[in-house]
Amino acid sequence: MKKQTRRKFTPEFKAKVALEAVKNQQTLAELGLKFELSPVIISKWKGEFLENMSSVFEKGMKNGEEQGPDVDGLYAQIGKLKVENEFLKKSCKKLGI
């Protein structure tokens, strides 16, 4: 006898189902038949979708400012690479390469 495992759904699929539920063109029962899901799950996903939909527009923002690359971290990495490069150049000269 094979043990039944839980189905796992991708975030894209969940968003698609939740968006269909938000449109209110079909009942939750109809959507449940269409997507082979329980109306309770669809209702839960719809609630999560409505609760978190504002985060879509906050993705590139942090406290009202655009998030850019970590400039200090990049400069530190450049400095480290320069030191390593100079060390390798000196080592190659000593070895005659």
Automatic annotation (TrEMBL):
Matching InterPro entries, A to Z? Transposase_8, Trp_repressor/repl_initiator
Q: What does the record list as GO biological process?
A: DNA transposition
Superkingdom classification of source? Bacteria
Q: Name one GO molecular function term.
A: sequence-specific DNA binding
Q: Which protein, by its recorded name, is this?
A: Transposase
Q: Which organism is it from?
A: Algoriphagus alkaliphilus
